[in-house]
Fold these 2 entries.
Entry 1:
Amino acid sequence: MRVAVITDVHANRHALDAVLADVDAEEVDAVWCLGDTVGYGPQPNECCDLVRERSDVCLAGNHDLVALGELTVSDFNEEAAAAAVWTNEVLAPNAEAFLRTLSPTGEPNGAELFHASARDPIWEYILTEEAAKATLDLTTAPLVLVGHSHVALALTLEDGTVAGGVAKAGTEIQLDRRWLLNPGSVGQPRDGDPRAAWLLVDADRRIASFRRVAYAIDETQSEMRAAGLPSALAARLDRGE
Ligand code: ZN
């Protein structure tokens, strides 16, 4: 079985289109999405439609839940809050209905999926060894997948200590031990590589490979400006941070 794992699309249609074209070339058996389909970006409805059509499993992220009004914007910084208010206003009924069906955790095919972490599936960023170890200790699946930080990561335990780190484009790991993987973000990468990120998990060959694909960043940025979204959110897409 070959699975494409995507996460943190953040209403960036051009990034999502580029990733799905790359996914199609790999002839995968399933697409799993780890949440935050909306928030920050200019095309939430189109991204919800595409993710609903294309994904076999989809989680809810913190931005999805804020856009639905199920969580408040008080935990967001000013720009994220402004984008969440805008998203809430433009969200179409069918997109809202789709997001309301989602949960922040999932267990497809013996893997454990969380939008953020096992300790806090909605909010906790796995960006420290302590947070990574807590999630590996709270789970038993050979493969644990998270999103939320927008940083592509491949982490494992060696003699009880967290090993691994940031997974650059083209990184391939052998699935011969337990792994905690974050594909990186489709629509708003924060690991210094502005290209859209996704992860190919090949269970038969026991390999996971970290992919990046270029997309028309300037088109997303001009749509963000036209929508009146905060300019800093558009500017960060160039830097991948
Ligand atoms: Zn996110």
Entry 2:
Amino acid sequence: MGTAPALIDPFGRAVTYIRVSVTDRCDFRCVYCMSEDMTFLPKRDLLTLEELDRLCTAFVDKGTRKIRITGGEPLVRRGIMTLFQSLSRHLDSGALDEITVTTNGSQLARYAKDLAACGVRRINVSLDTLDADKFRRITRWGDLKKVLEGIDAAQAAGLHVKLNAVALAGVNEDEFVPMIRWAHGRGIDITFIEVMPLGEIEGQRADQYLPLSKVRADLMDHFTLRDSSYQTGGPARYVTAEETGGRIGFITPLTHNFCESCNRVRLTCTGTLYMCLGQEDAADLRAPLRASESNDLLNAAIERAILRKPKGHDFIIDRTTRQPAVGRHMSVTGG
Ligand code: SAM
Ligand code: SF4
């Protein structure tokens, strides 16, 4: 199969990567992501898995090379493996390079083998601490043991695991060195993420925010860090720790804006397309999807949306800015 020409945005960036939030629901309530008392979308508003497949396929036909399935917690959506199974045909045909997943790991012990069988090669598991009590405090509802079993199952199934940890001031900053040693000891890269001002939560963002420039400087007391040219197609910048040979990534939307190389858009489980994680503008793809069996209207809506992709986000976290940059939670747009 030939390579479809990519969608190009007004700033000349090729959009070849789509992140799909397949549900806004989750079995955790991480303190930086959700409020304890969340109102979720009524189930009737969700696109079916067949509709999500049709949307993803329309993007693949327009040059998308990589799909990340995320959420909410993607692996709690009922029947989700059928979406992986159906999308895997695009891997088989060569139209797609990669299908990946971002998960909290709670359901991995159950699904790791199935994911591997659907052609998934790499997964991101979010893990902010290795301390079971702290894990419970951060996730409110999570069980660390289950996540660790999930990581074991994923590695046993041959999946390449990467860890994502949100850097939280005064919460997990004392653990970064042992977490890096633990991850690298298992052949796992670890990426730290700056907390982003998305959605209303209990407490102050400014209290959670820990700049990764400081984290990186502190890590240099423990590791010799070498800049790495390694890229996964995401916004992380990597260094290699000489002592362990493993990689450490930094996702720094606040201290270093990475929008100039943005290659992605985000689709929600209701068929809303966000052209930027940090802006409110969105395009409805559900109406054109449902309007006819042909993809003509849908394709036109996708093309119009890409022409509105903004230059970048304007995240700020300080003590005078009380409003989140955007009102929706990360679990809506998908991390
Ligand atoms: N439930 C899955 C998980 O936790 O991996 C997938 C969705 S979650 C929204 C995706 C990623 O976003 C997670 O790594 C999470 O830590 C991160 N995240 C959530 N809210 C965030 C925020 N306000 N700032 C930075 N990262 C956030
Ligand atoms: Fe759920 Fe992921 Fe948000 Fe945590 S970060 S509440 S696991 S969606």
